[in-house]
Amino acid sequence: MPDYELITILGPTASGKTPFATALAAELNTEIISE
C-alpha cells in the first residue's frame, strides 16, 4: 500500500464514517483526528 499523508472521510450524518475511520486507523496503525 502506498504511503498517505492525509486521508479524508466525508459523508452524511449517521452514515458510518466513525466506525469506518476507526477500522481504517487500526489497519494503518495510526490515529484519528476529528474536528
From TrEMBL:
Species assigned in the record: Bacteroides nordii CL02T12C05
An example Gene Ontology molecular-function term: transferase activity
Protein name: tRNA dimethylallyltransferase 2
Keywords: Transferase
